[in-house]
């Protein structure tokens, strides 16, 4: 059985997902094309050798429709012979892309494959693909007669179930910004961030290299003044247990971004004289309660640890996507995880959550962190819409 190894992993610095954000003037095809072009160029790889490009994107509509992964690789100058597909497992789309890519290598179906992801939330706002649509249908209405809910409400219910107070959520969010700012200042992101030329507000061009969503001055006291985002009279009546303490400050911001990971068999890496940086060790994907929605990383982590034959203490770092602060806090409580190892360079609350790009963004940051610290095993997991989660364990080589 072939080993699936990671040869390189890159990302764009985050852009605020709103008009005027650093990446908002760039078409999402070009965001993805930029990382695809760079990951082959910086490894001296003939793109004709790539067996497939598997990309994640959530809002596959408008500029992100019609298989954006294929459009982007053509824009990047790849040969027409290289195929691509775009998948949607909600926030875990590009993590699932990495799973499919690595599993294809392990199965012998691929020698070289790129897993990637993109989302331009400034140009294709969240929810655009479902506007005016009945996405549930009668079967869901019959099974869940009260209806499924917004993820923000799910975050409120998690806060209630795990008795997480507002102070804890805001302190965690502030720590995410502080860790990300410290990592940027130390150069920890330098190897993973690709410069991209963008236009400034005055029309001049510059290289975007710094995560625009990180606020180094953030404090818990400052966040405490923000108002809850999701409380309505209807939801307050339906969920009297909800504490109503999820705010823009302890949630991930709307974000633009793209990322890519070069995955191949160990044999192919040797033939091309490329040095593997990590290998895929174990995989899991799991569904959970679609009402709580954001809790699936907990059982997914337990499953992947069981498959790996490892304990949480064997891991040197964990990247748990910070869709909302209660998600990693509840996860850490249930797993008995070391807070120092949890999102050590900050998470999505600071670095942003460009939906389709987030899976390979987390993987990129995890690979680089293990190399910097000399850690051996790393875990990434993320909550996904409708109550799902992917979990991945990698081993640094």
From TrEMBL:
The keyword Transferase applies. Belongs to the thiolase-like superfamily. Thiolase family. GO terms for molecular function: acetyl-CoA C-acyltransferase activity. It holds the Pfam family Thiolase_C. This is Acetyl-CoA C-acyltransferase. Residues 275-396 form the Thiolase C-terminal domain. Keywords: Acyltransferase, Transferase. Its EC number is 2.3.1.16. The keyword Transferase applies. PANTHER family: ACETYL-COA C-ACYLTRANSFERASE, BLR7806 PROTEIN. It comes from the Bacteria. Residues 5-267 form the Thiolase N-terminal domain.
């Amino acid at each position: 059985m072939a080993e699936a190894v990671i040869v390189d992993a890159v990302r764009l610095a985050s852009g605020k997902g709103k008009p005027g954000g650093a990446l908002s003037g760039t078409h999402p095809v070009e965001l993805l094309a930029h990382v695809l072009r760079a990951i082959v160029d910086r490894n001296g790889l003939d793109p004709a050798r790539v067996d497939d490009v598997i990309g994640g994107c959530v809002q596959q509509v408008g500029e992100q429709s019609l298989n954006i992964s294929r459009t982007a690789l053509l824009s990047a100058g790849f040969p027409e012979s290289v195929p691509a597909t775009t998948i949607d497992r909600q926030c875990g789309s590009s993590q699932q892309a990495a799973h499919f890519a690595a599993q294809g290598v392990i199965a012998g179906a691929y020698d070289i494959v790129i897993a990637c992801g993109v989302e331009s939330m400034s140009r294709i706002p969240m929810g655009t693909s479902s506007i005016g649509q009945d996405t549930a249908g009668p079967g869901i209405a019959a099974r869940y007669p009260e209806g499924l809910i917004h993820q923000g409400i799910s975050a409120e219910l998690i806060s209630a179930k795990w008795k997480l107070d507002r102070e804890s959520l805001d302190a965690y969010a502030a720590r995410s910004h502080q860790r990300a700012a410290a990592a940027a200042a130390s150069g920890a992101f330098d190897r993973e961030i690709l410069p991209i030329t963008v236009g400034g507000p005055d029309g001049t061009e510059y290289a975007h290299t710094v995560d625009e969503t990180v606020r180094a001055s953030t404090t818990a006291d400052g966040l405490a003044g923000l108002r809850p985002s999701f409380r309505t009279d209807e939801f307050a009546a339906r969920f009297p247990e909800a504490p109503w303490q999820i705010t823009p400050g302890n949630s991930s911001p709307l974000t633009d971004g793209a990322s890519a990971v070069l995955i191949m068999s160990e044999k192919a890496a040797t033939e091309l004289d490329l040095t593997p940086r990590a290998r895929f060790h174990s995989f899991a994907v799991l569904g959970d309660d679609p009402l709580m929605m954001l809790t699936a990383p907990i059982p997914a982590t337990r499953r992947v640890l069981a498959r790996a034959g490892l304990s949480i203490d064997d891991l040197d770092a964990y990247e748990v996507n910070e869709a909302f602060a209660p998600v990693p806090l509840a996860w850490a409580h249930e797993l008995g995880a070391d807070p120092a190892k949890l999102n050590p360079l900050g998470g999505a609350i600071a670095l942003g959550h460009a939906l389709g790009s987030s899976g390979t963004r987390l993987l990129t940051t995890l690979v680089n962190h293990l190399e910097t610290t000399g850690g051996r095993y790393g875990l990434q997991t993320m909550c996904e819409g409708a109550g799902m989660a992917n979990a991945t364990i990698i081993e640094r080589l």
